[in-house]
Amino acid sequence: MTYTSAQAAKLLRKLNDEYAALLGKEAKSKEFNAAVGENVESVRPEYSYTDAQESQKELEGKIRKLKHAVNVFNATHVVPGFDMTIDEMLVYIPQLTRRKAKLAEMKAKLPKSRVSEVGARISNVIDYTYLNYDLAEVEADYERVSDELSDAQLALDAVNSSETFEFDF
């Protein structure tokens, strides 16, 4: 079948939900309590160790194959306009996000600010903190990084919702 990355992600979530449900069902049925004198067979839940393990192995195999197909697609498909594969973009976007946050903090500073004292210090000397960078340069870099991040996210979203790959269980 043909999938987009977005469709594959939804399928992967569905498979993981099915797997969690199987584990939950097994946890509830692999052991049970019975009172002394109670007919044990009348309260025994339906459970087959062999069937449970086979079902889990089958789903694990599907999840593994789907994740591999997505990883291969991500490692080989180049995002238009960025000359990077999807997996590189998945590293690049968080890097841009961190850089944008750092620049936002830097651009919010005043060129000169009074050092606030912690505790009671008796002194007539007032200390100031001075920026050791060009605020205008940081503001311009912030705008550039912000635009780059937005473009990268939009490009990746477009690929994830339109480019396809083949996958069968």
Layout: helices, strands, pairs:
Elements: E1 2-4, H1 5-29, H2 40-43, H3 49-76, E2 78-79, E3 84-85, H4 86-107, E4 112-114, E5 128-130, H5 135-162, E6 164-166
Antiparallel strand pairs: 1-6, 2-3, 4-5
Helix pairs in contact: 1-3, 4-5
What does this protein structure show overall?
This protein has 169 residues and is mainly alpha-helical. 63% of the residues lie in helices and 9% in strands. It has helices at residues 5-29, 40-43, 49-76, 86-107, 135-162, and strands spanning 2-4, 78-79, 84-85, 112-114, 128-130, 164-166. Strands 1-6 form a two-stranded antiparallel sheet. Strands 2-3 form a two-stranded antiparallel sheet. β2 and β3 (84-85) form a beta hairpin. α1 (5-29) runs antiparallel to α3. It is flat and about 85 Å long. It starts with a strand and ends with a strand. The mean pLDDT is 95.
Main attributes of the structure:
5 helices, 169 residues, mainly alpha, 6 strands, two-stranded antiparallel ribbon, two-stranded antiparallel sheet
Quickly count the helices: 5
Beta content comes to 5-15%
Q: Given the C-alpha coordinates, what overall shape results?
A: flat
Q: How many strand segments?
A: 6
State the order of secondary-structure elements, H for helix, E for strand.
Answer: EHHHEEHEEHE
Q: How much helix, percentage-wise, in residues? A: 55-70%
The helix-and-strand class reads mainly alpha
* Largest sheet, spatial ordering of strands: 1-6
Give a short account of the largest sheet: 2 strands, antiparallel
- Could you name the ranges where pLDDT drops below 50 across 5 or more consecutive residues? none
